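Hi R.,

Here's the chain you asked about this morning:
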Amino acid sequence: MAKPDDRSDNVRKLQAMTRDTLDNLREARDTLKNRDISDQQREAIEAKNRRREESSESFRSETKDEYHDQLE
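And the predicted structure, written out as tokens:
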């Protein structure tokens, strides 16, 4: 038998995912200040940061949707 869809803690989980993503973004930005990293490493970090920024926006949007769904 399939488990019922329990979405009661989705907002909390999404908020944690957003927070973790933003923490990683900040740490990566600090890493970019290091002049000893190669151009290849720098490009990889910058690309990953762009994906992190997109993810954090998606998480925020999904958090708002989940929150409003729970109010209904």
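The chain is about 80% helix and 0% strand.

Let me know if you need anything else.
M.
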